[in-house]
Amino acid sequence: MTVWGRRIGFVLALAFLVLTFVNASWLADSPRGYVKLVAHRGLMQLPRPDAAGDCKAQAIEPPIHDFIENTLPALAQAKRLGAQMIEIDPAPTADGRFVLFHEAALDCRTNGTGPVSAQTLEQLKALDAGYDYSPDGGKTFPLRGLGQGLIPSLEEALATAGDTALLFNLRFADGATAARFVAALKATGRDPVARRDAFSGSEAALAPIRAAWPGVLAYSDEQVEACTRAYLWQGWLGLTPAACQGSMIAIPLNRQWAFAGWPNRLQARMEAAGAKVMLIGPSADKPRGLDLPEQVGEIPASFTGYVWVDDIWSVGPALRPAFNKRNPREQAELAKALDARRAARD
């Protein structure tokens, strides 16, 4: 090896040691607090891995419980299973109210047709929220009749949530609807800042939110992606990207190693930037939440941020066994369903 080769090797080795030291997790104190589970739509029916398209109601796993997403029973059960935050999908109605419903159209999951926004609250209350769920492409409908009258108003959802924090997923993209939502939320007396609620959506939808509640966590998918991508390289230089200011960073369970200073140093940097940290499920092409109990073992003991959970039914009690509210039959059915879920991904 030439003299220059040895010098370059020495410089690179020294740089590696410096960057490793600068980003050492142990340099930061373990943060105070505890990990917070975010239950996606409360308690939901999971789509199969091969489910395609925007509406996946006819491609669900065989149901092991009767709970239907975005309904009051689903919210209440998510709380009982250990969720510290629940993600919900408010949608506008024809008479100026808001209900919880994920899609813009009713055809996907209910016995109704057309846009949610074209129906009044009374009309939506007359529908069956579980009408169109099927594990076999429309041959059988095991939840049909169980969701009659279960589409809840915003006010009912807030009453059920109580002190539990909410993540409002604003799927409407226009500022005018967002402004009406702000008025509706204020009318309930709920203070999102005091409750530690959060909001996600487009920039147009978030603008009225930020104006109404300065300092509340309000982020778009684009912001989270920008923060995450920037930190993947800037973090190793000891920098916190400007894109992370007041935003959120998403850490896939299978890529924790790629984030400089994980977990303690990264958490300290994000706290200084007013940003939150969300641990999500293993990601390849698209993000998803945790849905297997063994994934809980991959959460660092010192992590006190948020964990996105698609299946609180299995993940909640795995993290905190005291929250296990399942009976022996449900336990046995869950074990069988989890084996099938794992096999489908192998």
Tell me what the structure shows.
The strands form two sheets. The chain has an eight-stranded parallel beta sheet. Strands 3-4 form a two-stranded antiparallel sheet. It is an alpha/beta fold and 346 residues long. The longest helix is centred in the N-terminal third of the chain and has 20 residues, at 3-22. The protein is globular. It has helices spanning 3-22, 72-80, 121-125, 154-161, 175-187, 192-195, 203-212, 221-234, 264-272, 312-319, 328-345; strands at residues 36-40, 85-88, 90-92, 98-100, 165-170, 198-201, 217-219, 248-252, 276-280, 306-309. The chain folds into two domains: 36-219, TIM Barrel (Alpha-Beta Barrel), CATH 3.20.20; 220-310, no CATH class. 34% of the residues lie in helices and 12% in strands. Helix 2 (72-80) runs parallel beside helix 4.
